[in-house]
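seq/struct pair 1
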Amino acid sequence: MAVSSKAILLAHARSGSTLLMRFLDGQPGTSFGHEIFHQQKPHMPGFWPRGEEDEEALKARRDRDPVGFLAEVVARCPTPIFGFKWFRGHTPAIRAHVIAAPDWRCVILYRENFLAVHASQLTARRTGVYLARPGQRLAPPPVLELDPDLFLHEYRLYRRYYDGLVAECDRAGKAFLLIEYQQLQRGAFLRNVARHIGVEDPVTPEVAMVKQGTTRLAERFSNRDALLRTLEGINRLHWLVEEDHFFAPADMDPAAATQASSAGVR
């Protein structure tokens, strides 16, 4: 079956990309792959035959001709819609090729609260748990120490990465769909991404966002004074809590919300 729609998910580690990838892979007629162009090894889509080729040989062949390798993956796809995710640090030629090609669709997933991204990265490195599943028993997350210089350096790289994605799409005249991490909590936004990549009648498979720590991020760091000074210096004190977004599902009806507000509940 020839692929009629191709899509790339341009994202960053700890941005919710695995949840979105699984949602899209669960759509009718869709195969959405993992990090095919990961630096260490190719994470091939589910339809790719296992054991057909030694992993090192596969990586070497991929790296010799990334664009040709992507074309081969697309040619082997058994569904009319194909997609994969691409992170900062993956093969730059692939990002440039896909953005320039008119037959590829782009989704940009980001997480506005970089303190949450940073805390999630530090926690994953400390615990070795990069993906928590529903019902999985997890140890309490470790208390972290903020290195202000490292945090600000990583934030600059993060901003440069996303500024670069948007600018490159704009220069190429490429339409793109922008979605923020918090919006992954709501089915309407997920289905909108599915429509953007070519799914006519999206379904809503069960996927869950599982966090390893509290959204009250100040509680995750031991040196809170340094944390406050650092955030104040970049005018980002609101990052101390990763708030639900404007379109988050309401937990209570308007009457109950009014009563709670009158009682001082926030």
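seq/struct pair 2
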Amino acid sequence: MSNRRFPPPWTADQMAAGFRVADATGCMLAYCYGDSTGYRSTGSVMMSPDQAKAMAELIASLPDLMHGIGSATLPPGVQGPFEVEDRRSWFSVTDASGIRVAAVYFGDAEAGTLTRDEARRIAAGVSRLPDWVERPQ
């Protein structure tokens, strides 16, 4: 099991198909795809571009939220609980209505350098976001 840490600050950066979240070292952690058509891809509905941006920003705030710093809300139209699905070379995180809120890749040099275990840990953290944003401050 990997003990690698992913130091803050985490940032959300725009890319052609949505947004990607990286840690302070530039390690790619998660991808949030947005499409204005609501295109169905691999069995889940894609977020709108605005939802993808808000979700990437929320994921980027995860280290602070885990330490009780700040507060956040889920993007409009996104609802918990979230579920993680192992898709062989990546993990899909979907909300209660089937919207894919994040993709976390491993073993793909173009998408980042995460190991399978690291990707699973990141996806599990993303899946707990509804708990972090809904807890009382």
